[in-house]
Write a structure and sequence with these properties.
single chain; alpha+beta; Nuclear Transport Factor 2, Chain: A; 6-stranded mixed beta sheet; 4 helices
Length: 145
Amino acid sequence: MPEHGQDREVAEFFAIFEEASDSLDTGALTGCFAESFMAADPSGAQPVPRSGFLSVLPGRKELFTAAGIGRVSLADLTHIDLDEHYLLVRTRWAAQRQGGSAGSGSVTLRSSFILRRTDGGLRIVFYLNHKDLNDILRPDGAAAN
């Protein structure tokens, strides 16, 4: 069972991560990720340099906007310590799909993270999207929930 201090540490980390992701604050996002990390989705996993990931975020945000998906907000998170260095965090993110050709309704994104405790704070070392983002971005949004 996590201690309250650890709960606060994880909540504060994801508050920073959520705000920095929404505003594309690459300075703050740099502090959220390890220098390189594993990114995974249903199609597989691959190592990603932090700089490469940060460079594609503006295009990703444009794709979400074009699909009519508004601000993505953290709706829920749970975490467990794996050992003194690593923890597993499961998250659920929610957004409203705006009307128009992309349809309407809510969009749910689920992702899991493995974070590593460092002297500089928590860092993402593994990032798993549970659904392919291309499916979520489809105009009919069929795979969004």
